Automatic annotation (TrEMBL):
Pfam family, one: ADH_N_2
PANTHER family hit by this protein: PROSTAGLANDIN REDUCTASE, PROSTAGLANDIN REDUCTASE 1
Biased composition (Polar residues): 1-14
Keyword terms: Oxidoreductase
Source organism of this protein record: Kocuria marina subsp. indica
Region (Disordered): 1-23
Superkingdom of origin: Bacteria
Record-level Gene Ontology MF annotations: oxidoreductase activity, acting on the CH-CH group of donors, NAD or NADP as acceptor
Residue ranges constituting the Enoyl reductase (ER) domain according to the UniProt record: 22-338
InterPro entries: ADH-like_C, ADH_N_2, ER, GroES-like_sf, MDR_fam, NAD(P)-bd_dom_sf
Keyword Oxidoreductase (UniProt): yes
Record lineage: Bacteria, Bacillati, Actinomycetota, Actinomycetes, Micrococcales
Name under which the protein is recorded: Zinc-binding dehydrogenase
Amino acid sequence: MTNTESAESTQIQLVSRPKGWPTHENFRTVTEQLPPLEDGQVRVRNEFLSVDPYMRGRMRDEKSYIEPFALNETMTGGAVGRVVESRAQDLPEGTPVLHQLGWRDVAQGPAKAFTPVQEIEGAPLSVYLGIFGLTGMTAYAGLTRIARLREGDRVFVSGAAGAVGSAAGQIASLLGASHVIGSAGSDEKAELLTEKYGFDAVINYKEAPIREQLARVAGDSGVDVYYDNVGGDHLEAALDVLNRHGRVAVCGAISQYNATEAPCGPDNMGNLIKNSLTLEGFTMGDHMDVAAEFTEKMTGWFREGRIRYDETVVEGLENAVDAFLDMMKGENKGKMVVKL
């Protein structure tokens, strides 16, 4: 343990609430002086920060499952780094840790705010923000806890080239799905999903209305499970093709996060009744008890070479806002992270 001195931390704060798409004017960068460590505290130099769709919701001042970002205060989010100074016996210097004090280069706080992680041979620490972290766990929980995936199910995943979507498609296959369909925003992403991630079919939703394309691709066999990351027209399309007793796990609605007007709902909600469908939204805060089960399975799949992942890596804290905006526009393949 080290007798520490003060240190500087560069941080990004929200200074105004976006209307529609966020801009750089909604944020500012500050440098703060961190006080010397107290007993039981650690100082961590972050190596990777996560930018995620849910953060857009936290920029609104409205009640939700998580508190909104406060104005003129440093934002938070997933990050991984290493302990550089410590006054906590359980977290010595050099320990890699996962935590929620992102949007800054140096984080400091009580040791209980930081979770030590094991380094994985052949993988960067950033996997704990993606396939080994909440991203992969969200995909797993949505399929197993919410959609109650069964062997032989036909599955549709929207936003399939994103971090959660690409994980959900692979996990569905590993859990016994017979056919996995995805949607993505370009032919390049569609090719990646079929060739690298093992999707059976992928729709480029920009080529034609998703409702028409999904009906054609699903055919008479339909789908049994829809993993929804997009909402809007994708949900409407899925309600057309879901088989009787089909299940929808609603993870996100990225198509609506920057809307300035209330979107129209699907015109086919009556299918919920007609086909005895189940539609359930979820957030991971209610399902953290799945963590041990997920970690065991993911570790095994990874060691067996059965899991693939992509990262879009943006260099520098000064580019974190751009990384967030690009992620919201779907310009990432797999998990979007900022490397410090």
